[in-house]
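Per reviewer request, we include the raw input and output of the structure prediction for the construct analysed in the revised manuscript.
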Amino acid sequence: MERVDAVETHMSWVFLADGWAYKLKKPVRYQFLDFSTPEARRLDCEEEVRLNRRLAPDVYIGIVPLTWHPDEGLKLEGIGHPVEWLVKMRRLPAARMLDQALAAGAVGPDDAVRVAAVLGRFYRSLTPVDMSTVVYQRSLTEEIDACRIELGRSVYALGAERVAPVAHALIAFLERNEALVRKRVEGGRIVEGHGDLRPEHVCLLEPPVVIDCLAFNRDLRVLDAGDEISYLAMECERLDAAWFGRSIIEAYREAACDDIAQTVVHFYSAFRALVRAKLAVWHTHDAPPEGRGKWIGRALQYIGLAEAHSQACA
């Protein structure tokens, strides 16, 4: 290896070397995951590979050991005793990741059709999750309320008067449109999907691939396929590419044989924007003082999107 670049996230380090990427899990424990033991990290590596091969079969090679041997010391895929496990992946061309391609103006309507075709096949292949309308609707309501409470905390100075009306509008939508929600659930649209479908996880190869499935928590992957595609469209809008988001929704409807109502798309877009705003403010707890403003600005951006979409589904 001539050069190794490292990228750090909350839960892992990713090492970029030649044509490969290696992900090493951090020994962390949060409310929603526990990577505190080597065995837990190994199992999560295996699960990450299994899940991501659904949408990126040629990218996720497998898991490899970091070994210790008295003669070799620490070595990746060495002959000694495994002390850690890493996910091994093929590196993807950065310029073809959807977020960067959108920024460069290097995408067209055909790209939306190609991505939607991959996702449509994926969702049609999944077995619907057995869940009642009451349970599903309650899970959405509880998450909306959790976002309202967190984003309304004075420490963030976001303005509770902005967030509360959005949350109330979304909960009112659910109460007013129980029949639409039931149609989604009883129509088999609740599946174990990707869980984090953002432009930076979509690569415009031929065919497109989608990486970085949310592997560590199944509950967060169980969602409406229409929710997931609306999330992707909302994130494209945040990147000043609302046209691409609209295109992918239209292409998804045909590819997935899903006649999702536009009001439901707006609801899910607003819902996901609130969730992303909550995640953004959480980053302020770990960010250095000079980086806090970035995450507050990001949260405000998401709140603006949530406001717009909540009004559109009223």
